[in-house]
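User: I'm putting together notes for a lab meeting next week and I want to include a structural view of one of the chains we've been expressing. I don't have a solved structure, so I'd like a prediction I can at least talk through. The sequence is below, exactly as it appears in our construct file.
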Amino acid sequence: MKRLKDFRYTFYACYAGYFVQAIINNFLPLLFLTFRESFGLDHGEISLLIVINFGVQLFVDLISTTFVDRLGYGKCVIFAHVFACLGLTGLGIFPFILDPYTGIILSVTVYAIGSGLIEVIISPIVEACPGERKSAQMSLLHSFYCWGQMLVVLLSTLYFVIFGTASWRYLSFIWALVPLINCIFFTLVPIPPVLAKGESPGIKGLLKTKLFYVFALIMLCSGASEIAMSQWASFFAESGLRVSKTVGDLLGPCLFAVLMGTARVGYAKISDRVSLEKVMSLCGIFCMLCYLVSALSPVPLISLAGCAMCGLFVGIMWPATFSLAAEKIPTGGTVLFALLALFGDLGCSSGPAFVGKISEAFGEDVSKGLLFASLFPLLLVVGLYLQRRITNKENVKSD
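Assistant: Thanks for the context. Below is the predicted structure for the 399-residue chain, given as structure tokens.
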């Protein structure tokens, strides 16, 4: 096949890479209730699946610096898609030839390796591609995760309406085609050399910086605020609000993804004209209110609206934290971004697990888990306040 020379196609492949990550993180939660009914899984076992997914991604974030530069970004992005394809394919096979729960865990572990590599590799590739307005490109890139989440929910819901949830394993095979096709696409597009920019104090230097710990907290809360809701919204709608799976998925996680993507595209347009600290603080406050509405409202549609609106306010948290950290710690370099991604994944893993454990403690009541999860956006706001205090003190000292 003829190789493509235009970097525009590299952008397209990277966008599709984030779509693959959206499949990995959002397809399985649509099956939580199905797994409980078919395989007898409880809240604790379901929570562990989320922990394994993001825990493996976190581990890959941690060790990737030891091999990515040596192997090269081109080879690693291919490996990422191979693991994603194998894991999604295995999801439709392993639970039926092994112990079901063991089979699901094995599948999740394999595709989480692919997702972790995608997170580490795709953004630097986009950053290294020639072109201007890199911040806008990065925000657009992250928005494709949201559009991917929306399509995963929409198309999966359509499939379940037509074929029924009992045939979910075949949908897993269909979704596995996406990383397979994009893997082939990546072999045809140009991969730019990815170079580290600027001097970095290294891990030891960052660990001596107070601001780093504050941004680590903010990043952890960003991941937890986003994923705790997106992972449990479908289950909460079906089991807690007693609405149909179709209505629950469309008005819960699907609308959540649409609003989150809209927020990220909007952020790309106005990021250079607004105070990120103020916008993030407001988003944290409104995100907390959305959690409270979802958990406490006696009206199912209002609870679903709270789930969906949460997407609008968590949308900018992740990319804005990167931007704000780069501004306040300008010498952080690639080490800063790698560690922030690690803490973000830690939040993605611990947030949903926290919801699951609280729900289990209150008799399988997911609304109680979401109620306590409102602490995550609250802590984010506290972190932003601490960041301002530390920055102001350092500015006074420098004067």
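A couple of points you could mention at the meeting. The chain has a mean pLDDT of 85. The CA atoms of residues 387 and 393 lie 10 Å apart.

User: Perfect, that's what I needed.
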